Amino acid sequence: MRNRKLRVIFVASTAAICAVSGASAQLVNSGWEFLQPVGATLTVEETTEPCFAVGAMTLWDPDGPGTHTGFIAVSGGFSISRAEGSYSEFTLIDASSGQWMPLQTSHDVYARHLSVEIEADGTQSLFAVGAIRANQASSQVSRAGLLRHGQWTLYGAGTYGLHSLPPDAVTWKIGEQRFMAVAHNAWLPEFYDGTNWAPFGSGSASFIPRLPTNWTKMMQAIPQVGGGVHLVHAGSIQQQGDRFLRFTGGPMWEPMGTVRPIHGAKSFVVRRADGRADLIAGIEVGSFVRAETGVGLWDGNTWQMIAPDAGFQQIIPYPNPAGAFNVLVTDESGVYADGAIVPGPVLWDGSAWQSLQFPGGLEGVSSVVLGPGAPGQQDIYVGGNLRDPLTGLRTVVARLRWQNIRPSRCFRTDFNSNGVTPEPADVVAFFDALAGASCPTWQCMSLDFNRNGVSPEEQDVVDFLSAYMTDCGP
Questions:
Q1: Dihedral Cα 424, 427, 428, 434, nearest 10 deg
Q2: Are the beta carbons of 141 and 133 closer than 8 angstroms?
Q3: Cβ-Cβ contacts under 8 Å for 19 (sequence gap 6 or more)
Q4: What pLDDT sits at residue 71?
């Protein structure tokens, strides 16, 4: 049963955020596009719960090294009607042409998780968790499946609650050591050994929002030793005060660190060797989480508090090779950055949060995917419950096209936040704000240009003009 209090991602949660890991670079925005299928009508469920508008989304390139640039695979609570017929719950968007098309296979899929498995020949199979049923079947079965060369391989006979998964709440590995672990409505992780599903560990009566999926990277660091691979998660841990936990061989989940995320963040992976459990890969260096005192940066050993952003609900790093963005959204369609609310997604540029200038129409975001773009470009696909502010039409995917990378300080010289920099109006706006003129909260926050916590001061003026004339010089 769907929880009508859910806003973005998490089951039994009233607030949530989607995110992509940060880096010290900025890409120039060339405008948001609210994507619609050509020659068809897209209907979105009348709900403000974006995780049902888009349950899962991923970049999928079936032919791998072939000539096709790939698809954005999107699953959720929508339908597409064409003259020749209709289809619902799953679509592929061609990343090069923008054409929408159904996923035509032997099974219907309403996915709550999508990711890819890279085959030995470089081609990609599609991994899905959610409601999977044979075409025309009368009932849905919650299960996991792998789509390889147009054929589904299904795992298990069905498990309670998989249909209700939040995006990415699944860990999986297809290969010699086949297993999966998922969170479900019982608020316990489950382990799939290739034959059966069973509860995994005890002492964690919690909702588990996310488990790692980037096994291409993870498995390289984990020796295949006796005892297998175990999982550690960070969840909304009722019995442990909402702190990070780790599973070190059992039988209980144990607290780890003192940072307290509101609704969890990222997972850890450990290995067993000679009866011991060693932390191999966890929250990646440079990942962020909202803690009680602000934003915490994981440096590989401890949490470093780097920003007094008390408004964040959660920040989750996204496993992708570019790793240049943090995109966040609250349950009220706004983003808290530097303690102030921003109406749309934001970017962590390595030292501060910057607005991505979303043009309104944002009723919630549940998925973010970095897709291929034209030469010199990087596309960001945002999935959720969206409305085009110009046409009023609902959709489930918006695309933001980026171009050449520029220094992060250059982005902060766009002081009037109009997307154009450098320009004389930025200098005027900066000095007006410095003189005490009223301005939007987001712009005023940029007065502390050197981010040393002291503002206004002469050094802020020096650094602003230096960035304007050098990093962003006309």
A1: 180
A2: yes
A3: 288, 314, 315, 316, 317, 318, 326, 327, 328, 368
A4: 92
pTM of the predicted model, to two decimals? 0.60
Task: Please answer whether residues 242 and 259 qualify as being in contact, where contact means their C-beta atoms are separated by less than 8 angstroms.
Answer: no
Average pLDDT, integer, range 31-43: 88
Tokens of 424: 């004389």
How far is it, in rounded angstroms, from Cα 472 to Cα 206? 48
Instruction: Decide if 446 contacts 431 (C-beta within 8 A).
Output: no
What are the structure tokens assigned to 316, written together? 């989750």
Q: What CATH code is assigned to 26-405?
A: 2.130.10
Residue with token string 């699953």: 75
Please give the order of strands across the beta sheet that includes 288-291.
Answer: 288-291, 294-298, 303-307
Euclidean distance between CA atoms 34 and 382, whole angstroms? 10
pLDDT at 238: 32
Distance CA 345, CA 355 (A): 6
pLDDT of residue 390: 83
Q: Where are the domains of the chain?
A: 26-405, 407-474
CA distance to 5, 33, 103, 247, 454, per residue, from 357 (Å): 27, 12, 32, 41, 27
* β partners of residue 28: 403
